[in-house]
């Protein structure tokens, strides 16, 4: 009888199938990959639906900034003045990132000495505009009382607020990419690290050697199962964010497919960290500390919950080196800005550099026994 030729691909598929079943049966995998990120999405989704008051403004290029109103506004607590190019300011305004563009000019007549015009957008929460107007009125009243008691008012605010078209930038549009990134990072590092450490400890890999399957197919089979599970996780997270909390997918299915490709690239990188951890850990109890050294700084510093611009200037260069930062930035650009993968070339390039470095280390350190 002719012997049937051994199929490496069939063996790899069997390993993938078995590993995938094990992942779905693991409570920790489901909790950290799906439940944990979804809890944060639900929390911030409900908070975002209620709206938030954030008063960030910019001044027009030709605004009079030598007047006392501007001097007082600079020192108002919680009042942030954005200093960017006119093009960047308009983009921020269209997305609702700043409340209004303020133009202060000297009046043609001397009474009042100044006039203030506001330009906002449809993306800005009306509550924020009301808060801004209240702040401006309070500042004007304070200056009148102190320095201009004999003048009716140092300035008036034009009641006709110019509105430009805009797209609402919700809290979920910032939070969901960070949570998806955290899910991919946690699964890639913790999942792979525990998996391959236990396969060595339980002599499963050694038993595989008794079969004709090649080592590379063993790794590929386990890796594919992780990729399938995490891609399904990504679909669930994006689906809940989009349909329940209106997470923005500018170009619909095209945007979704770009996000999935980006998630795959990031997952490949994060799994490389997992291979390194599984190799350097001497016991199962040492895996969490090593893994947390990789995941915790990125979770805190990569713009998961708030922009890295909120960090001190000395810390921001460190934040911009972290791979999760570039995944978050690329995903936000793709989802909300409508950018394509080629438009995120810088972020993808940095992720590519990380992949080369991480897998060079992984190949040097990885242990089969």
Major β-sheet annotation: 6 strands, mixed
Question: Helix content range of the residues, please?
Answer: 55-70%
Count of DSSP strands: 6
Give the number of domains: 2
Low-confidence stretches: none
Task: Give the N-terminus to C-terminus distance in angstroms.
Answer: 37 Å
The 3D shape can be described as elongated
pLDDT averaged residue by residue:
83
> What is the rounded Rg?
27 Å
Number of helices: 13
Strand content: 5-15%
User: Class by helix and strand content?
Assistant: alpha/beta
**Secondary-structure element sequence?**
HHEHEHEEHEEHHHHHHHH
Q: How would you explain this protein's 3D organization?
A:
The chain is α/β, with parallel strands linked by helices. It folds into 2 domains: 234 residues, no CATH class; 109 residues, no CATH class. Helix content is 62%, strand content 7%. The protein has 13 helices and 6 strands. A hairpin with a 7-residue loop joins β3 and β4. α6 runs antiparallel to α10, α9 packs antiparallel against α10 and α12 packs antiparallel against α13. The protein is elongated and about 100 Å long. The model has no long low-confidence stretch (mean pLDDT 83).
Topology (elements, then pairings):
Elements (H helix, E strand, L loop, with lengths): L7 H17 L2 H23 L6 E4 L8 H6 L6 E2 L4 H9 L5 E7 L7 E8 L4 H22 L7 E3 L4 E3 L6 H31 L2 H5 L6 H31 L7 H28 L6 H15 L14 H4 L3 H15 L7 H21 L4
Parallel strand pairs: 1-2, 1-3, 4-5, 4-6
Antiparallel strand pairs: 3-4
Helix pairs in contact: 1-8, 2-6, 2-8, 6-8, 6-9, 6-10, 6-12, 8-9, 9-10, 9-12, 9-13, 12-13
């Amino acid at each position: 009888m002719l012997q049937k030729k051994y199929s490496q691909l069939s063996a790899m598929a069997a390993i993938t199938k078995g590993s995938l079943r094990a992942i779905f049966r693991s409570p920790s995998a489901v909790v950290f990959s799906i439940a944990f990120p979804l809890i944060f999405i639900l929390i911030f989704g409900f908070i975002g639906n209620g709206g938030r008051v954030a008063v960030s403004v910019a001044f027009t290029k030709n605004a009079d900034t030598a007047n006392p109103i501007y001097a007082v506004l600079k020192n108002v607590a919680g009042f942030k003045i954005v200093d960017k190019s006119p093009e960047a300011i308009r983009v921020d305004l269209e997305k609702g990132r700043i409340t209004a563009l303020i133009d202060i000019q000297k009046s043609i007549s001397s009474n009042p000495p100044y006039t203030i015009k506001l330009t906002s957008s449809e993306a800005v929460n009306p509550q924020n505009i009301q808060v801004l107007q209240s702040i401006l009125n309070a500042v004007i009243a304070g200056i009148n009382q102190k320095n201009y008691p004999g003048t009716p008012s140092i300035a008036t605010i034009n009641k006709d607020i110019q509105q430009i078209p805009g797209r609402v930038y919700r809290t979920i549009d910032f939070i969901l990419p960070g949570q998806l990134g955290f899910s991919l990072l946690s699964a890639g590092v913790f999942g792979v690290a525990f998996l391959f450490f236990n396969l060595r400890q339980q002599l499963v890999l050694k038993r595989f050697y008794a079969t004709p399957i090649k080592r590379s197919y063993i790794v590929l089979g386990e890796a594919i199962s992780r990729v399938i599970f995490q891609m399904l996780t990504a679909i669930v997270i994006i689906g809940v964010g989009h349909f329940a909390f209106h997470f923005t997918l500018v170009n619909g299915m095209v945007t979704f497919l770009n996000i999935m490709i980006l998630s795959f690239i990031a997952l490949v990188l994060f799994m490389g960290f997992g291979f390194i951890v599984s190799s350097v850990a001497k016991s199962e109890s040492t895996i969490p500390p090593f893994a947390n050294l990789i995941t915790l700084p990125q979770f805190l510093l990569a713009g998961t919950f708030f922009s890295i611009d909120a960090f001190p200037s000395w810390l921001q260069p460190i934040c911009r080196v972290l791979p999760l930062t570039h995944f978050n930035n690329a995903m936000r650009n793709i989802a909300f800005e409508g950018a394509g993968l080629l438009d995120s070339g810088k972020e993808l390039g940095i992720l590519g550099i990380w992949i080369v470095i991480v897998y060079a280390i992984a190949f040097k350190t990885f242990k089969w026994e």
